[in-house]
TrEMBL record, chain A:
Gene Ontology, cellular component aspect: plasma membrane
Taxonomic lineage of the native organism: Bacteria, Bacillati, Actinomycetota, Actinomycetes, Kitasatosporales
Subcellular location(s) of the protein: Cell membrane
Physiological role: Part of the high-affinity ATP-driven potassium transport (or Kdp) system, which catalyzes the hydrolysis of ATP coupled with the electrogenic transport of potassium into the cytoplasm. This subunit binds the extracellular potassium ions and delivers the ions to the membrane domain of KdpB through an intramembrane tunnel.
Statement: the UniProt record of this protein carries the keyword Transport: yes
Native source species: Actinacidiphila yanglinensis
Protein name: Potassium-transporting ATPase potassium-binding subunit
Keywords, alphabetical: Cell membrane, Ion transport, Membrane, Potassium, Potassium transport, Transmembrane, Transmembrane helix, Transport
Membrane topology reported for the UniProt record: Multi-pass membrane protein
Main location: membrane
Family note: Belongs to the KdpA family.
From TrEMBL, chain B:
Superkingdom of origin organism: Bacteria
Protein name: Potassium-transporting ATPase KdpC subunit
Localization in the cell: Cell membrane
Pfam families (alphabetical): KdpC (PF02669)
GO molecular function: ATP binding; P-type potassium transmembrane transporter activity
Keyword Endoplasmic reticulum: no
């Protein structure tokens, strides 16, 4: 019953975000919102960028790549030099080169895959100045790319798609910073730690126990990790750690922070292409997939753990509690983890590795669908729009007619770019998983044996290539092999999609719209919603079924232990 | 064009490093310490943080989740639901609980996700009443009343699950005469 109320509150709050955060974001990206102009203008002046200037898609893409390259090197430098830099009360040494490299790539690609443990690796400066800063900026890059694609649909015969630097600065200071600033205060009021005072030593005289409590500027990082759909925890246990996520309220707020921008983006899309109904159709697809996966994981976790049954204790009343926190309980834990895996966030409030096979399947396949339900900030919208282009193409094939989407003719070039953007991820995941399963350095990674061990490897590459960042934590991923092969997935998953998306934006912006005729496939109707859902599911199933059969599926149907 | 983008990337990175990497977290730290100093510092009390679980030794204390309880090495077991190793661990824990006269409840057998879960379910607390009362030579009714007083329902009536904070419960238990 309590969980029903959680869902009701979630739907109401997200409905308000959709409408009002959505319309605020339209005003921000169209330059009509000006209340932070005092902060914005000096940045443009120092960049020597005019807020009215425009870029072609090639220049826009070059700016994205240029910024990311600089961010990558600076983060790498901070990790390597943290020993000699300030804000290091626990005197941590330099981060190992392969770990620092994987972590830098992971955070600038909005992934936040973490092969290290935060509590024993990162100084406060690395946490605040590298990790948390990239949490803001990589999110803002994704949002900018989505806006550029939406402009491609909305503009008529335009050679340009906006200006990266302007979109990037606006998204950061108008959207991400104000929400994070307020949310962090709520988290601190609930008990999330925020201090520069270093670790605390405690002694329990009742029990004779001594503990050292790692602390740090956690609340400020916790909120942006959720809001920017980044997901990297301050400490290893991520959102399960009571010092990061202390109460049921912070748990629900985390879910809302993750979902608010991706949901609002469907309103932004509809508004900017002059038909809110088009945005509603996209939101309907996202909601249907999301609801299906939340149901799957919640039901699976309620079934209880086979290990507990074998050991002779019944958990039929409580569900599978291994790796779950008492204060959240099973349904709220499943909701959090599914939200995070369907949004390219990757934070977890319960150990993904210890979920039931079907619960783990829900998290794994949520990512395999391409992070579009609703996906990360910006990335979710451009991801599903690629699928939408493929859907109208398939619709067009069925009736033998050149397809259109939002008044733009979808021709060979557009379909090729969309297919490229959709297929880079599965190809990368499957090749990397096959390599890791074939060689010793890869097979040394899994903690669990049997199909669950294979799932750990498959999960790692699926997560990194989809820029999600969650993990089946049993995998020993902090090795040169996993750090370096993972980086390939991270970069291909990010730029293998962004560049085709921007090329598509440029190609669409240049087109003149055609009037809708009698034969036009309406993309704001249930028929389109159903077909788009089917396309997302079929592409995912066709590419990943064999791999899934070797992992969670065989684990689910088997009766033995491994 | 390459140099323009790299130069702009560098300038904007420096600006946002100062704004988002220093000013933002330090401002939040100032606000947190001024308004909620106790909570923002880790909710520390005389005997530890009420947000961090501990291993309670002996039958005279209520036991928490079977975690490592080291706050500098957080995380779960990461063992899968069909892991033989997990089943063996469960069997050991069940035997130890039964030896103390406790009927095992699932959250006393399964470890948490954080490895420092400070709470147990009300059922897990009630199942320990008899053994704790016997070890302390207290009437079971008194201990049961104490547990009932420490059950926290879902937050705001609907968020999360009912739970009992083990540190608070044991502190109150130590105060019983």
């Amino acid at each position: 019953m309590a969980f029903t109320w959680t869902i009701v509150v979630m739907v109401v709050v997200l409905g308000l975000c959709w409408r009002y955060l959505g319309s605020y974001m339209v005003a921000v990206y169209e330059g009509r919102s000006r209340w932070l102009r005092w902060m914005e203008r000096p940045i443009y002046r120092s960049l020597r960028v005019s807020p009215e200037s425009e870029q072609t898609w090639q220049r826009y893409a070059a700016s994205v790549v240029g910024f990311t390259a600089v961010a990558l090197l600076l983060s790498y430098g901070i990790f390597r030099l943290q020993k000699s830099l300030p804000f290091n009360p626990q005197h941590f040494g330099a981060v190992r080169p392969d770990t620092a490299w994987n972590t830098s790539v992971s955070f600038v690609t909005n992934t936040n895959w973490q092969s290290y443990s935060g509590e024993t690796t990162m100084s406060y400066l690395s946490q605040m100045g590298a990790l948390a800063v990239q949490n803001f900026l990589s999110a803002s890059v994704g949002m900018a790319v989505a806006i550029a694609l939406v402009r491609g649909f909305a503009r008529k015969g335009s050679p340009t798609i906006g200006n990266f630097w302007v979109d990037f600065v606006r998204g950061t200071i108008y959207v991400l910073l104000p929400i994070a600033f307020v949310a962090a205060i709520v988290f601190m009021a609930q008990g999330t730690v925020q201090t520069m005072a270093g670790a605390a030593s405690i002694h329990d005289s009742l029990n004779g126990v001594d503990q050292v409590l790692g602390r740090g500027p956690m609340a400020s990082q916790e909120v942006i990790k959720q809001l920017g759909t980044n997901g990297g925890g301050f400490f290893n246990a991520n959102g399960a750690n009571p010092l990061e996520n202390p109460t049921g309220l912070t748990n629900l707020l985390s879910v809302l922070l993750i979902l608010c921008i991706p949901v609002a983006f469907t309103y932004v899309f509809g508004k900017m292409v002059f038909s809110v109904r088009q945005g509603v159709a996209i939101l309907a697809v996202m909601t249907a997939l999301f609801a299906g996966w939340v149901t799957m994981a919640t039901v699976a976790e309620h079934q209880g753990s086979p290990a507990m049954a074998t050991a002779g204790v019944s958990d039929s009343g409580t569900g599978n509690l291994e790796g779950k926190e008492t204060r959240f309980g099973v349904p709220s834990s499943a909701l959090y983890n599914v939200t995070s895996t369907q949004t390219s966030t990757g934070s977890v409030d319960s150990a993904a590795d210890s979920y039931t096979p079907l619960g783990g399947f829900a998290m794994l396949t949520g990512m395999m669908l391409g992070e579009v339900s609703p996906g990360g900030v910006g990335t979710g919208l451009y991801g599903i729009l690629l699928f939408a282009v493929i859907t109208v193409f398939i619709g067009g094939l069925m009736v033998g007619r050149t397809p259109e989407y939002l008044g733009k003719k979808i021709q060979g070039r557009e379909v090729k770019l969309a297919a490229l953007g959709v297929l880079v991820m599965p190809v990368t995941v499957l090749v990397l998983t096959a390599v890791a399963a074939a060689i010793g350095a890869g097979r040394a990674g899994p903690l669990n044996s049997g199909p669950h061990g294979f799932s750990e490897i498959l999960y790692a590459y699926t997560s990194q290539t989809n820029n999600n960042g969650s993990g089946f934590g049993g995998l020993s991923a902090n090795t040169p092999f996993y750090n370096i092969t993972g980086t390939i997935g991270l970069l291909l998953g990010r730029f293998g999609m962004i560049i085709p998306v921007l090329a598509l934006a440029g190609s669409l912006a240049a087109k003149k719209p055609v009037a809708a005729g009698l034969g036009t496939f309406r993309t704001d109707k249930p028929m389109f919603v159903g077909l788009l859902i089917a396309v997302v599911l079929i592409v995912g199933a066709l590419t990943f079924f064999p791999a899934l059969a070797l992992g969670p599926l065989v684990e689910q149907v088997s009766h033995g232990l491994f | 064009m390459l140099w323009v983008n790299l130069r702009r990337g560098l300038i904007v990175s420096v600006i946002f490093f100062v704004l988002l990497g220093l000013a933002y977290p330090l401002a939040e730290t100032g606000i947190g310490q001024a308004l909620f100093g106790h909570r923002a510092s880790g909710s520390l009390g005389t005997n530890g943080s009420k947000l961090v679980g501990q291993q309670w030794k002996g039958p005279q204390w209520f036991q928490g989740r079977p975690d490592g309880d080291d706050p500098t090495a957080t995380g779960g077991s990461n063992l899968g639901p069909r892991s033989k190793e997990l089943v063996d661990t469960y069997k050991k824990r069940i035997a130890a609980l039964k030896k103390q006269g406790i009927t095992p409840s699932p959250d006393l057998v399964a470890a948490s996700g954080s490895g420092i879960d400070p709470d147990i379910s009300p059922a897990a607390a009630y199942t320990q009443v008899a053994s704790v009362a016997a070890a302390r030579h207290l009437p079971a009714g008194t201990v049961r009343t104490l547990v009932a007083a420490h059950v926290q329902g879902p937050q705001l009536g609907f968020l999360g699950a009912s739970h009992v904070n083990v540190l608070e419960l044991n502190e109150a238990l130590a105060g019983l005469r």
